Amino acid sequence: MIKRNNVVLVNEQDHPIGEMEKMEAHLKGELHRAFSVFIFNDKDEMLLQQRAMSKYHGGGLWTNACCSHPQFTEQVKDAATERLKFEMGLSCDLVFLFSFIYKIEVENNLIEHELDHVFIGKTNNQPYPNNIEVENYKWTSVEYLKKDVENNPERYTYWFRAALPKVLKMI
Question: One of 19, 82, 87, 114 is an active-site residue; which one?
Answer without folding.
Answer: 114
